[in-house]
Amino acid sequence: MFIKKIERELFLKSFQRVIGIVERKQPLPILSNVLIKKNDSTIGFVATDLEIQIESHTEFNEGTGSDSITVSAKKLQEIIRVLPEKSFFSLDIQDNKLILRSNKSRFNLQTLPAQDFPLVSDQLKEGSTVNIKQCVLKKLITKVQYSMAQQDIRYYLNGVLLVLDGEYIKLIATDGHRLAFASAKFNGLDKKLEIIISRKTVVELAKLLSDSEDDVQLELAEKQIRISLPEVTLTSKIIDGKFPDYDRVIPKYTNNLILDRLILSNSLQRVAVLSNEKFRGVRFVLTEKNLKIISSNNEQEEAQEEIENDYHGPALDIGFNVNYLLDGINNLDSEQVMLSFGDANSSILISIPETDDFKYVVMPMRI
Q1: Is 66 within 8 Å of 6 (Cβ atoms)?
Q2: Among residues 300, 335, 342, which one has the least CA distance to residue 318?
Q3: For residue 38, which phi and psi values (nearest 5 degrees)?
């Protein structure tokens, strides 16, 4: 017997950590499978797309001996998800089939040999290792991941730049229309490291991280990164490319406007209802102590919100993509945000008052 008895919830919790990277259509059939490894009372799962590998493990009570097999990740997930809650099931291997039994249910699944599963090779022998709290890394990712490009021909934009610089860890993402920067203090390295982590890796890591104070270990080398959490390990190739000089992109303005973050967010969401569905543009008409946010569409409909404030700089009339603005504002947990302006043709800088930990640049648009 491969696994004599295991609880549905225990199996599913560990199993679901790895299958986010599995896609049904793969160049190799075995890449649609998950590798299941049993070693006495420990069960482990491995999934890979040759760029990323995620391994998860958990302990269970009923188990002796060691064995391993690969089986369709999506089919096994769907079967276990529809089993009754808190039910138990067994797994057995017979004639290249994985047999799952639970009460009066029985499922026979095709398998492929475990020795054919393409594990990612270790390229971290000459790397560096650092530790950071899970909650800190998760917060940094939340603040920047929406700015990653999607399938851009500038492949180095399809991810996040990770910078370890002395006592600081920095994450930067840009798609060419906006740029998000977030940093935090930690017990860093005595040297500076910069690597580009792929979009898929960032998305999966965001799912795996918790809000706990537990450490996550980062191992970094020239071509690979490994992130180790309790019970989960993610290994990924690094994007080889030159990331844009983010320091040059982030402007230094003196015309600042501090607003309540939720008031601004709610105003933008209301005005966005009547914005052009394709371009999603809104205008900021800024005068002394007053900000008007205006949108219109092809049906000659218009929405307008006014927010009183303490602005004393020059008058401005400038347009932005409202979705871009909301991405930055809604992924913060601060009570206030600071908007900084140049002229009517310049980008906007969104930050948190009295801190340099977050900066978000959005290019203007013609409306």
Answers
A1: no
A2: 342
A3: -115, 130
Which backbone phi and psi does 154 adopt, to 5 degrees? Answer: -80, 80
| Domains of the chain with CATH codes | 3-116 (3.10.150.10), 128-247 (3.10.150.10), 250-362 (3.10.150.10)
pLDDT tens digit sequence for 4-41: 899 999 999 999 999 999 987 778 899 999 999 999 88
- Burial classification of residue 78, based on how many CB atoms lie within 10 Å of its CB (0-12 exposed, 13-18 middle, 19 or more buried): exposed
Q: What is the pTM of this model?
A: 0.93
CA 132, 136, 142 angle in degrees (round to 5)? 130
* CA pseudo-torsion sign 204, 134, 337, 306: positive
Tell me the Cα Rg of the chain.
Answer: 25
Question: Which tens digits make up the pLDDT trace of 257-287?
Answer: 999 999 999 999 999 999 999 999 999 999 9
